[in-house]
Specification:
By secondary structure, this protein is α/β, with parallel strands linked by helices. Helices cover about 35% and strands about 25% of the residues. The strands form 7 sheets. Strands 15-16-17-14-13-19-20 form a 7-stranded mixed sheet, with helices on both faces. Strand 6 (about 145-150) and strand 7 (about 150-160) form a beta hairpin.
C-alpha cells in the first residue's frame, strides 16, 4: 500500500489573505525581532494545502546564548518587581490575547491544521489562564512557625528559580505553553521559549503581545528552530529550570541535560490512555466519549484515549457504534466551522500514522472503519488527511496497543472482569491518562486508585480545569502542570530563622 503524499499542488485559493506567503519571522530576543546568525531560515507547511509558507529564523547555539543572556539580564529587575505589578501586567497580557484570539487561532490552524472551532476556544482559554495565574500569584506565599525552636521564630519564602527554558510541541503549541509560561513569569522568572519548528509563528505572536502589554524586555524570549536549537537551550548552563512537553525520547535527553547541572525539570511526555466501558455504562455518552478520545485534535494528543477496552457482553455493539460514528465525521478544511476532523499536522506525522495501517494489516487486525488516507475530494487527497480509524480484537501487547501513534487510530480490546480491565489498562509503559464508564458508584471509587495514571476520568473524557494538576506517571513524565500548586514548580522554598535571644 502506498502512503506517499501527493506532490503536485492544487488550486486552493487564498485562505489566509492576512498572512503573506513570503512573510519573514525573526527570533524574539530582549524584546526585539532579530535575524538568526548567518540569516538561516526554515519554512512552515500548511497541512490542509500541503504547501510551504513563511520564512522563520533558524536559531543557532549562538542565538540561544543571546536569548539566555537577555533573560539573565532581565531576571533581577523582574524578580524585584512587586507581585501586584507583575500580576497587573499579566492581566493586561491576557486582555491582549483575548483581543487577538482570532489572529492566534488562525495562525495555529495555518501551522498545524487544528479546527478553527477548537482553536477559538483554546485561544480564549489562554487569555483566561493569564488572569488565573496572575490572581494565583497574588495568593502565593510562605508560612510562619512561631516558635520554630525555643527563642526562635521561623518563616518560609517562595523565591523564583531564575531563567526557565520552555520547550513545547507542535500538536498544541499555545495550550501547552501557557501552563509553563504564565506561572513562571507570574512569580518572577524570565523565560526562553523554544516552540516546535512545525508551529513557531503562533508562539512568536503570543510573545510579541507580552511586549505590547508592557512586560519588560528580556522577560519573554523566543528562539525558533529544530532539534539543535532545543538541545542548545536544554544544555545551556544558565538555564535554571526546564519545562518540556513532547515525546518520551526527547524527554529523556532533556532530563539528562538538566541532571548535568542539577537544573529543575518538569516533563509532560507520551501517553496511551485506556477508555474502559463496563456493561452498566450509559452507552450513548460512552460512545461519544470514545470517538472524541480517538479523534480530538486529529488524535494528535498525549491525552488521547486510543485504547478502547470494552466488556465482552457489549463489545460488538460498542465497537459497531463507534465505527459508525467515526465514519460519519466530516473531514475537511479546518477553517470551516462544520469540519470535525482536520489534517495531520506535518508531512512526517502523516507518514508515521499511515505506516501503522501497514502494521495493522501485517498483524491481521480486524478493521472496523478507516485504515487509509483521506479520499473523496481533491482537497482531502492532496492534504495530510487520514480517515478516523478503529481496529477490533487487538491484543494489548500488539504495537497498535502499545505505541503512541499520535493520530486518529483506535484499538479495541475485550475484557471480562474489573480486575482484567485494570490490568490491561495498566499494562503499558505510559501513565498519563485513563478513564472508565460505569453507573456503579462503588466501582468508580474502587477502581480510580488502581489505575496507574496521573489523570483519571470517570463518565467523561478530556476535560481540564486550571484548578487541577495535569501530569503523568511512569514514562509519561515528571511533575505536573496546572492546579493550585502550579507556582510551586517555578519557585524555591527558603527557610528563615530569627533568634529572639534568651
Amino acid at each position: 500500500m502506498s502512503n506517499s503524499v501527493a506532490s503536485e499542488a492544487i488550486s486552493v485559493g487564498s485562505r489566509f489573505p492576512e498572512i503573506p506567503e513570503d512573510a519573514r519571522y525573526g527570533l524574539l530576543i530582549d524584546g526585539e525581532s532579530t535575524t538568526a546568525e548567518g540569516g538561516a531560515t526554515f519554512r512552515c507547511v500548511d497541512p490542509f494545502e500541503n504547501r510551504e509558507w513563511g520564512h522563520v529564523a533558524e536559531a543557532s547555539p549562538v542565538d540561544v546564548d543571546r536569548a539566555v543572556r537577555a533573560a539573565r539580564r532581565a531576571y533581577a529587575g523582574w524578580r524585584d518587581t512587586s507581585q501586584s505589578q507583575r500580576s497587573a501586567l499579566l492581566v493586561k497580557w491576557g486582555r491582549l490575547i483575548a483581543e487577538h484570539a482570532e489572529e492566534l487561532s488562525r495562525l495555529q490552524v495555518h501551522e498545524n491544521g487544528k479546527t478553527i472551532v477548537e482553536m477559538r476556544a483554546a485561544s480564549q482559554g489562554c487569555a483566561r489562564a493569564a488572569a488565573y495565574y496572575a490572581q494565583l500569584a497574588q495568593m502565593h506565599h510562605g508560612y510562619t512557625i512561631d516558635p520554630a525552636l525555643p527563642n526562635h521564630q521561623g518563616w518560609t519564602l517562595r523565591s523564583p528559580i531564575g531563567v526557565v527554558g520552555a520547550i513545547t510541541p507542535w500538536n498544541n503549541p499555545l495550550g501547552l505553553l501557557v501552563p509553563k509560561l504564565f506561572p513562571a513569569v507570574a512569580v518572577g522568572n524570565t523565560v526562553v521559549i523554544k516552540p516546535s519548528e512545525v508551529t513557531p509563528v503562533s508562539t512568536l505572536r503570543l510573545a510579541e503581545l507580552a511586549v505590547e502589554a508592557g512586560i519588560p524586555k528580556g522577560v519573554v524570549n523566543v528562539v525558533t528552530g529544530g532539534g539543535g536549537t532545543g538541545r542548545a537551550l536544554a544544555e545551556h548552563p544558565w538555564v535554571d529550570k526546564l519545562a518540556f512537553t513532547g515525546s518520551t525520547t526527547t524527554g529523556r535527553a532533556i532530563a539528562r541535560a538538566g541532571a548535568e547541572r542539577f537544573a529543575r525539570v518538569t516533563l509532560e511526555l507520551g501517553g496511551k490512555g485506556a477508555q474502559i466501558v463496563f456493561p452498566d455504562a450509559d452507552l450513548d455518552r460512552a460512545v461519544d466519549s470514545l470517538v472524541k478520545g480517538i479523534t480530538a485534535g486529529t488524535g494528535q494528543a498525549c491525552n488521547a484515549g486510543s485504547r478502547v477496552l470494552v466488556h465482552e457482553s457489549i463489545y460488538e455493539e460498542v465497537i459497531g457504534r463507534v465505527g459508525t460514528a467515526l465514519a460519519a465525521l466530516t473531514l475537511g478544511d479546518p477553517l470551516e466551522v462544520g469540519t470535525e476532523l482536520g489534517p495531520l499536522a506535518s508531512r512526517p506525522q502523516f507518514e508515521k500514522v499511515t505506516s501503522y495501517f501497514d502494521v495493522a494489516a501485517a498483524a491481521q487486525h480486524r478493521l472496523v472503519t478507516g485504515g487509509r488516507r483521506g479520499t473523496g475530494t481533491a482537497e482531502l487527497e492532496h492534504g495530510l488527511f487520514v480517515e478516523p480509524t478503529l481496529y477490533g480484537d487487538v491484543d494489548n501487547h500488539a504495537r497498535l496497543a502499545q505505541e503512541e501513534i499520535f493520530g486518529p487510530v483506535g484499538a479495541a480490546i475485550r475484557f471480562s472482569t474489573d480486575a482484567e480491565a485494570v490490568a490491561i489498562a495498566n499494562d503499558t509503559k505510559y501513565g498519563l491518562t485513563a478513564g472508565f464508564w460505569t453507573s456503579d458508584l462503588e466501582r468508580a471509587h474502587r477502581l480510580a486508585p488502581w489505575l496507574e495514571a496521573g489523570v483519571v476520568w470517570i463518565n467523561t473524557w478530556r476535560m481540564f480545569s486550571p484548578l487541577m494538576p495535569f501530569g503523568g506517571t511512569k514514562e509519561s513524565g515528571i511533575g505536573s502542570e496546572g492546579g493550585l500548586h502550579a507556582l510551586d514548580q517555578y519557585t524555591e522554598t527558603k527557610s528563615v530563622y530569627l533568634g529572639l535571644g534568651a
